[in-house]
Every structure is written in structure tokens, then in C-alpha cells.
Amino acid sequence: MLRSRVNSETALAYPRCGNTPRGKFALFSRSELLVAPWKKSGRCGFTLIELLVTVTIVGVLMSLLMPALGSAKRKAESARCISNLHQLGITIRLYADENSGRLPSAEAFRPSQTNSATGLPAIQQVLVTYSRAVTNLFKCPADKAGVYGGSSYDWNSSLNGRSLSQLAQAPSQESAKGAFLLRDHEGWHSRGRRNAVFSDGRAGPAEF
Q1: Global pTM?
Q2: Collapsing DSSP states into helix, strand and coil, what is residue 150?
Q3: Tens digits of residue pLDDT in 24-60
Q4: 111: exposed, middle or buried (C-beta count within 10 Å: 0-12, 13-18, 19+)?
Q5: Phi, psi values for residue 125, rounded to 5°
């Protein structure tokens, strides 16, 4: 009677590529399994066409995702900018509370903290006592053009020394939408939009 010997050449059953019918198993000896894949007779890899199709599909998916990712990034930058402006609005009110309810007197825009053209300080200098605990509070995240040197935001110098309480009661355009206190120096956000913080405490997109 014939008997198969169990030794180091014991055959193992695995699904076999190549000519083995679908769903069938072929016997591989242990020595066969140790042979380098490129020396086996069967083909288990991808063809060049399959690889090209895969790369093309990945490229199409990336082209579809990139605009969505870019839009999400711009929205996140705008949200952080509005958060900065909201906090700056709070610091301005703290300043007013300690100065008889009056707003700061500062230069309209000066990114650096030197060479004042009007003799007035920069708004970031006036509010440094109230904002020093938060880093980059005067930096708009969407300011990629290098405008930021001390502040990415314009101060509304027409409000210098004005009373907050009187401003809230002012008629016409100042109180209709709320006069802005600080706004983006440029339209860095989607569709050239600027964000601002207003005298009534709101922070968001500016309609001017």
C-alpha cells in the first residue's frame, strides 16, 4: 500500500493562480513556497493596464476632493479671523470701561509699530495690556501677502475718542449696520470679502 511520507516536503493546499480552475485548490510543496514569486509559473500580480486604471481613478478622485478641501480651509481661516475680531472687540470694550466709556485714539492702519505718520500709536500698541495673553490676535490667518507686521486689521480712526454709549444712540449710517471698529485690511476671504467687528459687539463679514 502506498503511503505519503510526511517530511519537510509535505504538500500544502492553497488557492493557485494560473491554470487552476476557479474555486479549486492546488498542492504546493514547502520548497515550492520558498521559490521567488517571479520564478513561479502562475501570475498573481497586476497588469500594467490594471495599474494605469487604478492610478487614473485615484487622480480623478483627488481632482474632485482638492476644491472641497481648499474651500474647507478658507472657511476655517475665516472662522478663526472672526474669532480674533470678536476677542479684539472685547478688549476695546475693556479699554473703554477704563477710560470713561471712550474708544481708543489710534492710527487707522500701521502694520509695523514704528514710523507713525500722524503721531498716534498703532491700535495693537493701545490694546497691548488687554491682548498680550493671546498670541497672534491681530493676525488674520488668511493674510498670506505679508501685510501683517503688527496687525492685519484696520482701525476705524473716525471713531477716535468717541463715546461708545453715544455711538450706540447715533442715527443714520453709523447705527444702521453698526460702525466697524476693526476690519481686515484687504479682502483676503472668499470673493474678496472682509471680516469686521462692529461697535455693537458683532463680528462677521463686512458689507462694505
Answers
A1: 0.64
A2: coil
A3: 445 555 555 445 454 555 555 678 888 888 888 888 8
A4: middle
A5: -75, -40
